[in-house]
Specification:
Oligomer: single chain
Helix content: 40-55%
Largest sheet: 4 strands, mixed
Structural class: alpha+beta
Distance between the termini: 42 Å
Strand content: 5-15%
Radius of gyration: 18 Å
Number of strands: 4
Length: 190
């Protein structure tokens, strides 16, 4: 299977350090991926990678891709959902570089956050509802949102979703009723 993280390998700068220099970070991330409770392991990974350049961080992420795929497989996550979820790692690196949110990456690699089409959902559902995330870029058509909600409901269940986003800014109420943002916001009790 082609790596969903392969595109980030092509972007590694020539100045990336030797792999041996990032082994502690690889071990910490592998531990975070495999752990039942990620709080400590995720914090250790964030601490160990805080000073890494983009190329070094990329090496760390590529080194644990197989561990992430294995965790997803053990959790029964279909390959297409795994591929879409792990692809967000590369998108986040493109958008934020070495300042990327490490805990978010751990959530993706562990399968705690899953991509269903245009939207992402947290796999666990607290009492107030399952958290929905809108990745940057791309459109937000009614068809795409319907598809994502249906796919998430079929796989992880729970029709109640919660979303905190700038899309709910009252100033956007001035948008035409036919806009994708207006249609998305109308789906929620604000």
């Amino acid at each position: 299977m082609t790596s969903s993280l392969l595109s980030i390998a092509a972007r590694m700068p020539e100045t990336a350090s030797d792999f041996a220099g990032v082994l502690p970070a690889v071990d910490a991330l592998r531990t975070a991926i495999c752990a039942d409770d990620t709080t400590t392991a995720s914090a250790e990974f964030a601490e160990l990678t805080a000073g890494l350049e983009l190329g070094e961080l990329t090496r760390v992420l590529l080194a644990v891709e197989e561990a992430a795929r294995e965790r997803h497989l053990r959790a029964g996550i279909p390959l297409d959902i795994t591929a879409a979820t792990l692809a967000d790692v590369g998108r986040k690196l493109d958008a934020y570089g070495a300042t990327v949110d490490r805990p978010w990456l751990v959530s993706l690699l562990r399968g705690d956050v899953l991509a269903f089409g245009r939207l992402q959902f947290e796999a666990t559902m607290p009492d107030d509802g399952r958290a929905l995330h809108i990745p940057e870029g791309g459109s937000l058509t009614a068809t795409e949102v319907d598809d994502a909600l249906a796919r998430a409901d079929a796989f992880i269940g729970g029709r109640t979703v919660v979303c905190t986003s700038w899309l709910f800014d009252p100033a956007l109420a001035a948008l035409p009723e036919t806009s994708n943002i207006s249609a998305f916001v109308r789906r929620f009790d604000v």
